[in-house]
Known about the structure:
The complex is a heterodimer.
Chain A: E1 4-11, H1 22-35, E2 47-51, H2 55-59, H3 64-72, E3 79-82, H4 88-101, E4 107-114, H5 121-129, H6 144-159, H7 168-177, H8 191-196, E5 199-201, E6 204-205, E7 215-223, H9 224-234, E8 241-250, H10 265-277, E9 287-289, H11 295-305, H12 313-318, H13 335-338, H14 346-358, E10 372-379, E11 384-392
Helix pairs in contact in A: 4-14
Chain B: H1 3-8, H2 10-15, E1 17-21, E2 27-28, E3 43-47, E4 51-60, E5 73-80, E6 85-89, E7 103-112, E8 121-128
Antiparallel strand pairs in B: 1-2, 1-3, 4-5, 4-7, 5-6, 7-8
Amino acid sequence: MNPIYIIxxxxxxxxxxxxxxxxxxxxxxxxxxxxxAPGLEPSRVGGLFVANALGERLAGQGQLGAFxxxxxxxxxxPAVRVEAAGASGGVAxxxxxxxIAAGSCEVAVVLGVEKVTDQLEAEVEAALALAADxxxxxxxxxxxxxxxxxxxxxxxxxxxxxxxxFAPFPVNAHANAAKNPQALYRFPINADxxxxxxxxxxxxxxxxCSSLADGAACVILASERVARSLADRDGGxxxxxxxxxxxxxxxxxxxxxxxxxxxxxxxRASAHMALGRAHMGLGDVHVFELCDPHGIAAALALxxxxxxxxxxxxxxxxxxxxxPTGRTPLATAGGYKARGDVGGASGVYQVVELIRQLxxxxxxxxxxxxxxxLAQCLGGVGATAATCVLVAE
Amino acid sequence: xxxxxxxxxxxxxxxxxxxxxxxxxxxxxxxxPPALGEEPDxxxxxxxxxRGEIYSFSVVRQAPEGYEALAPYPVALVRLAEGPLVTAQxxxxxxxxxxIGQPVEVVTxxxxxxxxxxxxxxxxxxxPVLQ
Lengths: 393, 131
């Protein structure tokens, strides 16, 4: 397959942007990305892939491909909205990469955008629950958070953990977000605060639940020819970042339809396929972005992919394995929990952060010597899994 | 209002009707249409006993639209005696008496509030079996 490079990236802060519309956030991210690639003419863009999960219900806007192509200043080009719930961003990047690999364009823009704070909490919960199986799960008032809570309770039962064993995940996320000016929650928390936090969907408490907020993130993908010509003109500032492998896998949205609810086979399949396409193994990755709105989500993904044995991820997290200096550094910008959960845009935010890591621009949460990175986002409780493997050259 | 949508599900919701595989005897719930590679009559309807035990549970405090009046409410994955794992609300119980492995039985209850113009949506919930 022809190599694909990510030649530009930018994101807005994740926040309650009451004064900013979906369009304004989208324009900020796209203008920001183009500003990082000064030689790139907008006329060279051959496709726009919009990652968005909740636009109809929460932002009152459909047909986001055509709508946002026109708004951001890419009129007339092929444009499509990609919806795979929380995995929309990763799937959009995969689709854009395939368009370049197939030769149908040389430059593709991926725009993840979500506008959620125009609606109240009950409406947001209902919108998120649309990703669940409507008849089997959502009809019974099961929220996305409650789905993860059911898995957490069962995990605690099978492996003998108390709820506070999951505290290291949000504690790490907040510690990193405190150093990220673009994060939603820029303050540290500790295990004691975790123990005292109010319940949201037991055993998940407020300090183990992400908040959905507004934001937009943009990455621009290009063929090797375009990437090298821009880099030459640019004088070669920092390494090029290659999108070395992508893969999408799926599972039944209904928890009851799964043989082993504590396994996430789509997360495993997607990660292994993406690494295989990148000619990499599990041990080659230096820094990670996973779907981590709750500690249980990160733990199940790490175990499904194969970094830790079943039942052991919380123990390793407590020993520092997920810190920037650990074996599997996670959430270096704050993750879903503390950077903020941006719905269908989260997968694009993940890649924006990993590019900072691979270019050595991550400041106080920089993972030393990071050359290979893996981003994985999930739709629902692992019903869609999209993985991107990035390599610095 | 979605009247036809709720009517279509009447056997599933009121009788806990699932499907049994004619060859393997495996039981599944809720019913599904035949998938690729399956004979159209591979799965036959079967009424389930409504008996099972709690596989996991949670208590929802941030409820979606239509469910706010019920909050906080307990939800569970219930492992039915016939094998399927079913999502449902729990009822007639308090949070502190719930435990994984607890025997439960099915009851018919109102599931959600569709507003003053909406249909009344009934379906299955589970309650602890009185010992």
